[in-house]
Amino acid sequence: SLSIGIVGLPNVGKSTLFNALTKNDALAANYPFATIEPNVGVVGVPDSRLGKLADIYASAKIIPATVDFVDIAGIVRGASVGEGLGNQFLANIRESDAICQVIRAFDDPDVTHVDGDIEPARDIETIDTELILADLQTLEKALPRLEKDAKRNAKDKAAQDLLAAARAAQGVLDGGRRLFTGGPEAGIDLALMRELNLLTVKPFIYVFNLDTDELADDSLRAKLSGLVAPAEAIFLDAKIESELAELDDDEAAELLESMGQTESGLAQLARVGFATLGLQTYLTAGPKETRAWTIKKGATAPEAAGVIHTDFQRGFIKAEVVSFDDLVAAGSPQAAKAAGKTRMEGKDYVMADGDVVEFRFNV
Ligand code: GDP
C-alpha cells in the first residue's frame, strides 16, 4: 500500500504526531499488521461516500483506503557527512513513496530547538540539504559503474541514457535543488533516477506543527505555504492530533469544530498524500463490508481487480460498474440497474474515481 516516510529535525513533534497515528485503534483492528512494525502507523483516508454506501447496502463494516506512515528518525544537520545517514534510515526512506517533512512552527521555551530558535525556512533548508547531499553521495558511488557500463556497451542506448541522466542529476543536486522539482526542468526522466535509489526524486509534503492559536492565523499559514509551494502544506497541532486520536468520532468532531476545523491534520495528511501520488479509489459494497480500494489513476478494470486478489485479475471477465453518484441518486443497486445506470465493462475499461464495482471472473 501507499507509504509515506516522516522526517524532521529533533524536537519538532514527529514522535507526538506519530503516536497519534499509531493510536488509531479502529484502523489497527482492521489492519493487524499496523502493530507489527513499531515504526509504521496506518491512517484511513477520509471518504464520506463510504458511510452512504454502507447505508444503502446495510454493510456490517466500513474499510477505508489507508496510508502507511513510516517514522524515519535520524536527520540532524550534518547527518549525511562523516558517518553518513544510517543504513536503516536510508532503507526506510527508500521504501517510502513520498516524504513528509515535519517542521516546527510552535514556540515553547520548555522545548529546545536544535538550532536555537524557531525558523521554519532554515529547517526546511537543513533537511533538504541533508537529503541532497545523501543523493550526491549515492551518485558519486554509482557513477564509476555507470561510466563503465556505458563504455563497454557503446551501442546500448539505455546505458548511455542512464549515464547522461545521472550526470545531469549531479548538476541539479550540486545546484542545491531536489530532483523531484529540479529534475524535470533539466530534462531528466525521474523514472531512470528511481532505479538509482535516489531520495529527492520523491514528492515532498510539508507538515507545519503549530500551536492551536497559530492554526487560526491565516497570514502565518500563507507565509508558511509560500515557503514550500508548489508542494502541499498541511497545518496541524501535533498535541491536539494526539488528543483527537484518543476520542471517539463524535467527540473528535466536536473538538475539531471548537477549533474551526472540519478534518483532523492526520486525515488531511492521508488525503493529500493520496492526491500527491496520483492515486484514486474505487468502491465495493455488500452486506459484509463497504470498502475503498486504492489504484493508480488510469488503472484498467483488470488491474483494479488485481488489487483485491491476483486471481481476480488473471481470471477477469467483466466488471459491473455504477458510478457512486448514479447509485445514490437511484437509491439502491436494483433501482440503478432498472434506470440503466449499471454498465458491463471489459478489460480495457479505465476506472473512474468513485466507481462502485462488482467483478466477474473465472477461478
Ligand atoms: P521529535 O523529536 O520531533 O519526535 O519531537 P517530539 O514529538 O518528541 O516533541 C518534542 C517536544 O515538543 C515534546 O515535549 C512535545 O510534547 C512537544 N510538542 C510537540 N508538538 C508540540 C506543539 O504543537 N506545541 C507545543 N507547545 N509542544 C509540542
TrEMBL record:
Ranges of residues in domain TGS: 278-361
Domain OBG-type G: from-to ranges: 2-256
Record flagged with keyword Iron: no
Ligand binding (ATP): 11-16
Required cofactor names: Mg(2+)
SUPFAM superfamilies according to UniProt: P-loop containing nucleoside triphosphate hydrolases, TGS-like
Highest taxon of the lineage: Bacteria
Annotated keywords: ATP-binding, Magnesium, Metal-binding, Nucleotide-binding
Signal peptide: none
Keyword ATP-binding (UniProt): yes
Function of the molecule: ATPase that binds to both the 70S ribosome and the 50S ribosomal subunit in a nucleotide-independent manner.
Protein name: Ribosome-binding ATPase YchF
Protein species of origin: Nocardiopsis mangrovi
Encoding gene per record: ychF
